[in-house]
Amino acid sequence: MTVGALPQTVEVRTLAARAVSLAGVVDPAKLTRLSAAIVAAKDPVVVNADFDRDEEGRYVVAMQVSADVLVTCQRCLSTLEQTVASTTLLAVVWTDEQAGQLPPRYEPLVAEAEIELWEVVEDELLLALPSFSYHSDLNCGAETGVQAPGGDGEALAQENPDKDNPFSVLQALKGDSDS
Ligand SMILES: [Zn+2]
To answer: How remote is the CA of residue 39 from the centroid of ligand 1, in Å?
Structure first.
């Protein structure tokens, strides 16, 4: 499958009337709100958007977005990799009042003619991004004995000097090595 850059703006009702499917990528560096919420993004954001009309004549967009991002572990404060993905069914409406009348399966997308597709993608990613991220216990460099919510202390207590252990990176940064 050839995947090019996703258009930044689209005529959403036109695409829906023609039942157009768009697949493409967005450079995460262009998504400034997302960039502010993460440490870094590894790869382009992957987007699939299927525009269509539903049985009641609504203009709808079935949107899938996914991105591999680096975020800060809230326990050991080093980075961890996280896949942020969401699947959303959007219905295009003209007004907030119409938005309130949509069936619950839809999320409203208030739009005149054009929509800023990148902004919609960014909104979906930000909604899907967890507020707090933690390593799984084995990978976390925390030595504080603080347990992740719902985690058990066993894995934490067992020191695992893996070369990928983020704590060794932290130690190197602090100049704390023995050699
Ligand atoms: Zn951690």
So the answer is: 14
Q: Please give the structure tokens belonging to residue 17.
A: 């009337």
Distance 139 CA to ligand 1 centre (A): 7
Stated pTM of the model: 0.75
| Residues flanking ion ligand 1, Cβ below 5 Å | 73, 75-76, 135, 140
- What is the spatial distance between Cα 155 and Cα 158, in angstroms, rounded to a whole number? 5
Q: Give the up-direction half-sphere exposure of residue 78: CA atoms within 13 A in the CB hemisphere.
A: 20
Segment (H or E) for 21: strand 21-26
Query: Is residue 63 packed enough to be buried (19+ CB in 10 Å), middle (13-18) or exposed (0-12)?
Result: buried
Ligand 1 mean position, distance from CA 100 (Å): 41
- How does pLDDT run along the chain (179 residues), one tens digit per residue? 557 999 999 999 999 999 999 999 999 999 999 999 999 998 999 999 999 999 999 999 999 999 999 999 999 999 999 999 999 999 999 999 999 999 999 999 999 889 999 999 999 999 999 989 999 888 788 654 555 454 444 444 444 444 455 555 555 555 544 54
